[in-house]
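Q: Given only this backbone (110 positions), what sequence would you predict?
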């Protein structure tokens, strides 16, 4: 590997905060994607409703558990809006705590 000078310093393997000094050379970066960090699926509303009914929660009870309003849960379930990534992670955690993961819920077709 050839050392390049950057702002009068040799490149030692540490990336400076300002990468323009590397010129036309690009530094490969890895992007990690996992399902844990992904947002809700497009059919999240139907999934939430099926999970909530399976666990015996009301919209209000689920809303209190997630610290949101019951109308927010209603909007999720009716498909008006998707839950945020933060809300989706909280919902997944709640489902895991209740030993009924969201992924295990089969959605009946309409």
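A: Predicted residues:
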């Amino acid at each position: 590997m050839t050392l390049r000078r950057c702002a009068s310093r040799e490149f030692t393997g540490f990336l400076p905060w300002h990468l323009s000094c590397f010129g036309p050379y690009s530094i490969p970066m890895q992007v990690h994607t996992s399902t844990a960090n992904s947002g809700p699926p497009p059919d999240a509303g139907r999934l939430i409703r099926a999970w909530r009914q399976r666990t015996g929660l009301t919209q209000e009870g689920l809303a209190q558990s997630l610290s949101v309003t019951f109308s927010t849960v209603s909007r999720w379930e009716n498909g008006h809006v998707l839950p945020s990534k933060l809300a989706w992670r909280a919902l997944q955690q709640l489902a895991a705590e209740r030993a009924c993961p969201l992924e295990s819920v089969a959605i009946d077709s309409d």
